[in-house]
Amino acid sequence: IPSIVLPLISLNYDFSLENNSQLQPTSNLIFQSITRRSTNENTDMENLEILGDCFLKLAISMSLYHQYPFDCSGKLTSKKDKQVSNENLYRLAKKKELINYLYVDKVIYEGEEANWIPPGYKINDETSKKYTKQKAKPKAFADMIEALIGAFLISTNYITTIKFMKWLGLDTIPIDKQNQIIKPPSILHPNLSDTTDDVISKIQEFFNNFTFDDIEKKINYVFKNKAYLIAAFTHPSYYNNPFTQCYERLEYLGDAILDFLVVRCVFVEYYKQVTPSRVTDIRQDLSNNGRLAYLLVSCDLHRKILHESPYLFDQMTSYLENSTLFPKDQPMNDKLDKDIDQWADSTAPKALADVFEALIGAIFLDSGYCLETVWKIIEPLLRQYINRSIKHRNLNPVRSFFEKAGKIIEESYDGKGEFTCTVELSNGTRFDGYGKNKKLAKYDACQKAMNN
Q1: Does 197-391 carry CATH code 3.40.50.1820?
Q2: pLDDT tens for residues 236-272?
Q3: First-to-last CA distance in the chain?
Q4: Among 56, 161, 219, 330, which is least packed, fewest CB within 10 Å?
Q5: Top-level CATH class of 27-168?
């Protein structure tokens, strides 16, 4: 997929069709979009489905962020999950009569299993069911919808794709009468106006007091609206920020943006080198809180988080004391050049990863929905990870452990805040993992087993 097909532009409705004159996918792409792997054809929908899935989630996330300015990230996520659920996509496929086009069964021309007859051949109604009916689960139809979105995305442009999604009945990014994406809701508290000189002046003063310009220098981007950056680094526990919301809504948006940009990069740069399952692994692996937390700390941005949570303070202190991850006085580039397995440390506080994603959301909104601006900032941080993930499979250690026939022997709690998980490899070797909950203990044990 050439980069011109998925240009890093501003996701706005003033993007013309000059980059791609096609108004609909080619017949080959349509065929690929409706074809399941079970048909044994030389093409199937899986790659297009992955691409369509991440763009669908980005578009829906943007739409809900605009439509519900006072909803917390939990409510937004719940609404998004309903929109992108297999059940809803199947319902839309059925409503638009697209379910008739899914290609599931391998064509068999002769024998008792034959399911093909020559055109014009007449058979009775009972026998015809064998030739006219296919069995498929609702998820297959949902995958087809996502694949069609992916087909529109790589053969037309963002705008035509969004219009196709609107035709399907999905929530799309709100636009005004001039076909422009409407201005995002204010990041400020409801009683404040971001156009008032007095408010703007006080926000700038708050910004200066906490030297947030240090963040701008680190990421090489100057915010036009300083409130976005303040919000991105405001933890829910911090009540001394009288101006902006906390980072949760920005984190919700940034998560979808990051997912799309990474998948886009993999498809554009490594299309011939990766399988659909590898792309899925990379997506899942990058969503690991440990990786994103490590990136934030490597850039020394964790110091700027505004919070009043003793629990978070203890978590961060414990995490930063890991001398393996963070050797004293090690330069940022050396930290980012580490073996990526070490990035996925299970003790990383989730808040660090949330702030990283919130920063992405803040840049996206402040830059006028510009994907290129966001990618220029995060690409250098992610490049080592992406390159290594392409060359060396880097599965989640829990998944790797069970793929190698490992099993959990025992899980226990000491009553003092620590869980223990004992796992065993197929050769009988056992490993103990520890954590503040069962999930972390299991992750720690599996990671030790896989690193053995």
Answers
A1: no
A2: 999 999 999 999 999 999 999 999 999 988 888 877 7
A3: 39
A4: 330
A5: mainly alpha
pLDDT of residue 439: 75
C-alpha closest to that of 89 among 38, 145, 44 = 145
Tell me where in the chain the CATH 1.10.1520.10 domain(s) lie. 27-168, 197-391
pLDDT band at 5 (very low <50, low <70, confident <90, very high): low
Strand order of the β-sheet with 407-413 is: 407-413, 419-424, 430-435
- Tokens representing 318 are 């414990």
Tens digit of pLDDT for each residue in 322-332?
777 777 777 77
**Sign of the Cα pseudo-torsion (57, 58, 63, 68, in order):** positive
What the block records as the tokens of 31 is 């065929």
Provide the 10 A C-beta neighbour count for residue 218.
14
CA 153, 155, 158, 161 torsion-angle sign: negative
**Rounded Cα gap, residues 351 and 292, in angstroms:** 10
Percent of the chain with pLDDT over 70: 90
418-435 pLDDT, tens digit per residue, is 889 999 998 999 999 887
Where do the CATH 3.30.160.20 domains begin and end in the chain? 399-451
| Distance of alpha carbon 444 from alpha carbon 419, whole angstroms | 11
Give the phi and the psi of residue 373 in degrees, each rounded to 5. -60, -45
Alpha-carbon distance of 19 to 345, in angstroms, equals 42
The third-level CATH classification (topology) of the domain covering 399-451 is Double Stranded RNA Binding Domain (3.30.160)
- The DSSP annotation for 188-211 comes to B-TT--TT-HHHHHHHHHHHHHTT
**How many other CB atoms are there within 10 angstroms of residue 161's CB atom?**
24
Q: Residue 222 CB: number of other CB atoms within 10 A?
A: 11
